[in-house]
Amino acid sequence: MSYQDIDKEIVHLEFVFELISTNDRIPLSYWRNRLSKFPKPWLMPTQCERLARLEAALHALEQSAETENTALPLRSTGTRP
Predict the structure, then answer these.
(1) Do residues 60 and 69 make contact, with C-beta atoms less than 8 angstroms apart?
(2) Which residues are within 8 A (CB) of 20 and not within 5 positions of it... i.e. 6 or more apart?
(3) pTM to 2 decimal places
(4) Which of 34, 66, 63 is nearest to 51 (CA)?
(5) Phi, psi of 69 (to 5 degrees)
(6) pLDDT interval class at 6 (50, 70, 90)
(7) In this structure, are residues 14 and 49 in contact, taking their beta carbons and an 8 Å threshold?
(8) Concatenated DSSP letters for 6-38?
(9) What is the distance between the alpha carbons of residues 53 and 59, in angstroms, rounded to a whole number?
(10) How much is the pLDDT for 46?
């Protein structure tokens, strides 16, 4: 993956992360996996900083999802209201 390809991928993720929520069809684990695929030893410092911001944003979403899941009791069917 070239530096330009990495930059394009980061730009895409920055755009998407502005739109995703804990209720999306695509699970947050998918985005976590996408972030983990970057070749971190080969990244430029600015790319590392941008990825760190994305990881922080995703972590905040994951924390929010955990809070939502623990806040609502389960129905007898095992689902949340």
Answers:
(1) no
(2) 26, 28, 31, 61
(3) 0.78
(4) 34
(5) -70, -35
(6) very high
(7) no
(8) HHHHHHHHHHHHTT--TTSSS-HHHHHHHHHTS
(9) 10
(10) 96
